[in-house]
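step 3/5: co-fold with iron/sulfur cluster
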Amino acid sequence: MGRNVVEKILQEHLVYGDITTGSRVGLKVDQVYTQDATGTMAWLQFEAIGAGRVKVPLAVSYVDHNMLQSNFMNADDHEFLRTAAARFGAWYSRPGNGISHQVHLERFSAPGRIALGTDSHTPTGGGIGMLAIGVGGLDAATVMAGAPLELKVPEVVEVRLTGRLKRPWVAAMDVILELLRGLTVKGGVGKIMEYGGPGLRQLSVPERATITNMGAELGATTSVFPSDERTLFFLKAQGREKDWVELKADPDAVYSDTITINLSELEPLMAAPHSPDNVVPVREMAGQKTKVDQVCIGSCTNSSYMVLKTVASALKGHTVRPGVNLLVNPGSRQVALMLARDGSMGDFLAAGARVLECSCGPCIGMGGSPGSAQVSVRTYNRNFKGRSGTKDAMVYLANPLLCAFFALNGQIIEPGSQPLDIKRVKEPASYPVDDNLLIPPREAGVEVEIKKGPNIKGVPLKGPVEDEMHAWALLVVGDNITTDDIMPAGSQILPLRSNIPAISEYVYRGVDPDFGKRAVMAKAKGGGAIIGGENYGQGSSREHAALAPMYLGVKVIIAKSFARIHRANLINFGILPLVFKDPADHDRISREDELVIINARAALEDAASQAGRTFTVEDRTKGFTFEAASGLSRREADLLLAGGLLPYTREKFAGGSDG
Ligand code: MIC
Ligand code: SF4
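step 4/5: write tokens
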């Protein structure tokens, strides 16, 4: 039987298990990268494991999320990351070098490899034919310490592209918006999206990377393109043709499902507030003539030279509409330099664009927050309520051509109806390569002192699971709760990522300002529980959405279903993720109910049979009992019994050498 691209990559990296959907496999990982906001915790955890130097062939520590330096904390974090990278054998990408995913795509990604990143948009690397997966910091640290990656083999869905992207105002982002329109933010859970078909030929690696980047919004484990002559072209242009291998699915490869998208028929789309799957054709929006207050172009989704140069040429000779703020955050210094050298930066500035540094910026409310109830249209990948830093802002997502158009017109109107000369820019045959902001790892044996400022605190630990678990329901929430809801980001909170006691005060702040107080009271009585709907914990990989609730005494989350990375993070920090056997039980539980898991430890210990791992939960306040399943693997059950992945791994890897 023929194999698809995903199966080929998995087979090459198999340490244990069988590559059949749903089974657990151990995989050798080639590359691991971190970004600063999740990286401080990841590197603190790597240090706490005590494994010496990193054991994977390539590790890179990027700084891209928080570069505001509004006080000492942020610069201290950068210094910690720089010295930790030097000490533990990782590359360090200095602030200013760019957003991890864009820089990694340019300088390190390679077809056929497996990469992990402590960020949910790591699948950007799928654009080059790499199996690139977002994980929590502790999972990354454990793999860097030498453990294989354990993965439940996802289904592989073929996305067959036919036709050509040729309609005006349509760009690569519309491919993924179209998928989100059909599949929703939970349609990719437990799946890998593998692209194929004759439409591939037309798509450059940066365009493919836009699609795989935003594939994260489907909830998919990752997305991947084959590696072909377009991949070779990109790698050659980056001076890295030696990293190219051809990678394509066998003609008789099997997929769990096939979705066909005809690129020629795609029309310009937008995601309306407040979810990336709230997709509507611009044509349907246009009649309302919504006034646009802000336009943001860039981020890890749409930052290639081609995209930004195209936008610059659209702006050339025009002025951004009065009343519109246009912000541009280029994804990498390589791209920014090209724009500076070819005059495009001048076109941006002349048109009135505010060019920001190469960082995440407004995408997570690190500056650039819209005003009250303002409308912001962004080339970014997420528009969750409040994520921009403004609770009542209305954030839309759209491709860069549309964003340029809206910036000049100040309204959401049909682009076809207005004259604007947009020339699409061709893929460059060579990029200016200068890796001077990438600091290579120090040689083994060279002493480096790790610098920790006063805001960098230790990693809190949780005790093992009790025989009978008592927890008070702190919050009952509905479907698609995001990690931004659980643990908000933004300029006030992000500096606290390396200080769990301080950041824990902000858990669920936007949903329920009293959550923290109630959690602390419940902790004194035994602990807290959260009752969730479908796809609980979608969105980012931030493990703080598990670690901070754990610090506040949350012991169990009972939901209708979980997002992959968040579920893994919960287990890593000793929080039990349970799934209602009967989803109707969700509505029977109220805030403040006392829940008792009668057989908590016994069910975990009975890891031999799946059937044994049913948990019986008693709502003591209301006087009823219901059942919840865990779907835990043997390893996951062991982690929970040990109190989490850190204590579990420390035992295994302690005493690792520096060599
Ligand atoms: C995001 O886009 O939500 C983030 C901020 O990049 C997160 C990581 C984080 O919270 O640090 C992600 O996507 O994983
Ligand atoms: Fe940064 Fe936004 Fe990309 Fe997350 S989605 S990595 S915050 S640019």
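step 5/5: annotate
The chain has a mean pLDDT of 95.
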